[in-house]
Design brief:
Layout: H1 2-43, H2 57-60, E1 61-70, E2 73-82, E3 86-89, E4 94-96, E5 101-103, E6 107-108, E7 113-117, E8 121-126, E9 130-139, E10 145-154, E11 156-158, E12 162-163, E13 167-175
Length: 179
């Protein structure tokens, strides 16, 4: 009978230790979640007394498009208005469109500068206040296309240490006939 009381006591003691360990792990997990939430609040603070360190993407960057018909198709100009302290990756600017549409390589109104990026390594970026990327869109068969869907993909960062997720701007474009 003495042995069973000792075994039961050990079992109860082991259970209490496990409960204490579980409580400690739970407390640490909650502390970690609170720290993460506080970190996000510091980045994007909502209180009026506490200015956010980083702008929302639509305030940091304005993306505008303009088209013009030409003998070679439709010239598409994509203008990036970049808030000081931010930049746009040159190589992350991409177009997606349906099969049967083609685009010339982009030309840019400004020259990019190279930076050492922690994610992409040495890359060209645009830090200028305004940059225009131009391409000409045409159809493979030379006929025009009305309301062709177009997706403009791009990505930008704040020099203070935040890279925004890749963005997509969806639009429709009329492509002029080339024949």
């Amino acid at each position: 009978m003495q042995a069973s009381k000792i075994s039961a006591s050990r079992y109860l003691l082991a259970g209490k230790k496990a409960a204490i360990a579980l409580t400690a792990v739970t407390a640490l997990s909650l502390l970690s979640v609170s720290a993460q939430a506080a970190g996000l609040n510091e980045l994007f603070g909502n209180s009026s007394a506490d200015k956010a360190k980083f702008l929302p993407v639509n305030e940091a960057f304005a993306v505008l498009t303009d088209t013009k018909t030409s003998a070679k198709g439709t010239r598409l100009a994509i203008t990036f208005d970049i808030t000081p302290g931010h930049y746009v990756y040159k190589d992350q600017l991409k177009l997606s469109f349906p099969k049967g549409i083609k685009a010339t390589p982009f030309t840019f109104s400004q020259k990019p500068v190279s930076i050492d990026d922690p994610t992409f390594g040495r890359v060209p970026v645009f830090k200028q206040r305004s940059i225009v990327a131009t391409t000409t869109l045409s159809t493979s068969n030379g006929k025009g296309a009305k309301n062709a869907p177009l997706i403009i993909g791009w990505q930008g960062c704040a020099t203070a240490g935040l890279c925004y997720p890749p963005e997509k701007v969806k639009t429709k474009i009329n492509i002029a006939a080339t024949r």
